[in-house]
Amino acid sequence: MKVLVLNGPNLGRLDLRDSAMYGSMNFESLKSFIKSEATKNGLDADVRQSDSEVEIIQWLHEAAEGSIPVIINPAAFTHYSYAIRDAAEMLKGPLIEVHISNPLKREEFRHTSVISGIASGTIAGFGPDSYRLALIALKEMLK
Ligand code: DQA
Fold first, then answer.
1. Distance between CA atoms of 120 and 59, rounded to whole angstroms?
2. d(CA 62, ligand 1 centre) in Å
3. In terms of pTM, does the model score above 0.85?
4. Domains plus CATH for the chain?
5. Ligand 1 centre and the CA of 100: distance in Å?
6. 66-96: pLDDT as tens digits
7. Which whole-number Å values give the CA distances from 6 to 11, 31, 95, 131, 143, in the listed order?
């Protein structure tokens, strides 16, 4: 079963960001980690990253049309993109929101997620393991 793992702005430069929040893994390594954890759970992860809201919306449309489950780290778009929320609302399969850091422990503007209200669930604060846990949750949901 295919799963789209979508990542928002600045996650492509993960290793250059605040290591106290995001650790030291670069995006290519994160991608390999997600793909191998997906395989262990019988899933085929198509891992993508974009700094563009438009591109992420187009990928969500693609997932809706193909009834493909989605794991998404919308990054900063989490906090204000109603356009991404509206696109995600059209999904037919499960949607799991993930964050590497725990936004609720950080600045107040990160305490709002416009995505959580339409997600099947949210996993945050476990570093790259947030994605692994999301894959396990997804596998259970697809049973
Ligand atoms: C993030 C948290 C967001 O607040 C932030 O804008 C990001 C990454 C996370 O994975 O912890 O870019 O989504």
1. 18
2. 23
3. yes
4. 2-141 (3.40.50.9100)
5. 7
6. 999 999 999 999 999 999 999 999 999 999 9
7. 10, 11, 11, 11, 22
